[in-house]
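Same chain as my last thread, 488 residues:
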Amino acid sequence: MKNVIELKVGIVAVSRDCFPVSLSVSRRAAVCKEFNARYGEIYECLVSVENELDVIKALDDVKAAGCNALVVYLGNFGPETEETTLAKLFDGPVMFIAAAEGDGDLIDGRGDAFCGMLNASYNLKLRGIKAYIPEYPVGTASECADMIAEFLPIARAVASLKKLKIISFGPRPYNFLACNAPIAPLYELGVEIQENSELDLFEAFIKHENDPRIAEVAADMANELGTANKKPEVLNKLAQYELTLLDWVEANKGSREFVTIAGKCWPAFQTMFGFVPCYVNSRLAARGIPVSCEVDIYGALSEYIGSCVSLDAVTLLDINNTVPASVYNESIKPKYDYRHTDTFMGFHCGNTPICKLNSPEMKFQRIMARTLPVENTNGTLEGTIAPGKITFFRLQANSSSKLVGYIANGEVLPVDTNSFGGIGVFAINEMGRFYRHVLIEKNFPHHGAVAFGHHGKAIFEVFKYLGITDVGFNQPAGMLYKSENPFY
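reply #2:
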């Protein structure tokens, strides 16, 4: 299932009428040449916008070309009304960049786009138009091509969210209010949500009992797991459940193109279905359909943003437990430049995709098996999360229905956890302060989305584009949080 938008980016050059339009045209062509040589195809709109009628012509042109993301390029000073109207009328994410001056003629060959970008940003604000403007948005053809490349994951996430539906099953479990959040902000983002009963899902599951596709899916699971398959007796039920979810998605996504799921796995799931859904959740996440645990709607949304940005599998983990001092002193302190409070263990029962685990095993769910028969808890995927760079982040609606977020780049260390579940030792610089003054201070739940790789820069820009102004991060030493006591 393709679960993220396929981007086609167009570029439109704008030109102020008292500047040579040829300057914008030649500079636009140079940007396209650089981008096409290094990053792939960008659609070069040959309509240069100088007046309001040009805006309509350019929009018709990029629409006919199938563009769903747009670069507005100030090859010279640019017409502030027309260039911002272009952004307002385009149905998709937009970025603004501007041309730096080249060597040579600074009389008729000077574009003043450095100045024009100021007027563009002012007019965008006046008109209430969202657009992405890079950190330093003025550059050579090569530098502008790099800026456009950095825009791609941002545009992909923003555009995909407009076509997303979150499908949830059941209310949050009792004593699990941490994952309960207002849904009104989802509509502000353009995201649709369909909340369903667990009974609806169970009925659909029963109807799939004799589905002829079960054997094929179970065989695929067995092939994927190989020797990691410690509970072969549950594969048919897991296959039946996977088909139930995929069929539900196809039958219920309606006008939306993309879907993510907020599922429920306790307290009644394992007794009624006869297994736990962790391994199925992991398989869907690996295919670009993140499935959050415990009906964590904003966890599912966060995971989806991570998958759009990274174009890779993601997971959802508890910010779970501290690293024992003995493990830190023996395996971390001598090798890595992290303090003990920079480390913690990220854990969940077994929803992390197999491609992101070392030594995986599909087995029983240990926590649930403390109070239930083991056979009712089969289906979890345990393993140590593969070491490497990660981004820990979350988008959340707080109790006031305001969207807030946090982002922290870090890494998973190649350290034995001596524990169970899908688990890893995580290290984030200044994690102790971040934990206290962002996660606790701003009342974030314990679930965090994990993207594999350092994607904090792009995710921050996605949040900013979406209008989220309260985004916490792991501030470096010496940079105090507002609530931090300066006398420590």
